[in-house]
Structures are given as C-alpha cells and as structure tokens.
Amino acid sequence: MHAWNDGSLGRGLMNGVAFLSVLESCLLDEFPDLDFVFATLGLGAIVKASRGGRYSRQNRAEGRRPNIYFDTMGDDPSIIAILAEFFGPDRVLAGTDWPILPSLSQQSLGRSFKTAGLDAAAQALIAGGNARRLLGRVDR
Predict the structure, then answer these.
(1) Average pLDDT of 70-81?
(2) Helix axes 106-116, 77-87, angle to 10 degrees
(3) Is the whole model's pTM more than 0.70, yes or no?
(4) Percent of the chain with pLDDT over 70
(5) I need a labelling partner for 57 at 20 to 30 A (CA). Which of 2, 23, 76, 82 fits?
C-alpha cells in the first residue's frame, strides 16, 4: 500500500491543521493540564509554528513549550532527531503507525536513537518515560 493510496497525505494535512488549530486557539490557556498528542504526519506544520508564538526561537531556547507531544510514527532517526530538537525530548513519544508501518523493536529503536545522536536521558524519555508520565504511571 502506498502513501498516496492509503489516505496518509490527507491524514498528514488533518494532523497539521489540528496542531496549528490547537496552537491558535484558547485551549492551551483554558486547559493548562490537558496534554495533546499528534502524529508525526502533521510535522510539516512546525514550519508555520516556528515563525512565532508558542514555538518561537526564543520560547524554545527558554524551554517554554505547551503540553503538546508528537509520536515518532516509527524509528526513522532523522525524524526522531527533528522532533527531539524542535519539541524537546520530553515532548516526543516512540510510536508507530501500525498496522500501516511495522511495529517498533527495542533493537531498531536503540539504533535509531544512536544515529539521531540522542543521549541516554533523551532515549529513556522517548522510549517510554514520556508515555508513562502522560498515562499517570510516574510523577510528573
């Protein structure tokens, strides 16, 4: 199945629009404890998001980021590196687009983390620490 046949292009557009809509709405201010998770398909919207507002260079440099998370949708090291750099490793979740993409293995994810240049702390967050925190399995 190819991306142009499985609706992925439309799904990416919808994810990007949803991400930008949340950023531009009052939801983040009205519900500061609500966490949002978006699929990497919406990653193209970060170009728009980086042009100011909540994801401006200054806000990112100061570590000010909203409760928005992106899942990796696989183990591509370039995508993992971009997500970790832009959003911070504490806002990235290891995930798949199963059943469209194969499930993750610990070995392939570990290789991708190394190729992406992530340190052990970032790897631990992305591999499961962030998900456990979001699901209330550990203290925030």
Answers:
(1) 91
(2) 60
(3) yes
(4) 89
(5) 76
Strand partners, 93: 71
Q: How many residues are present in the chain? A: 140
Q: How many domains does the chain have?
A: 1
Element holding 123 (H helix, E strand): helix 120-124
The DSSP call for residue 51 is T
Q: What is the DSSP string of 53-118?
A: GGG-HHHHHTT---SEEEE-SS--HHHHHHHHHHH-GGGEE----TTTSPPP-HHHHHHHHHHHT-
Q: Give the domain extent around 103.
A: 8-134
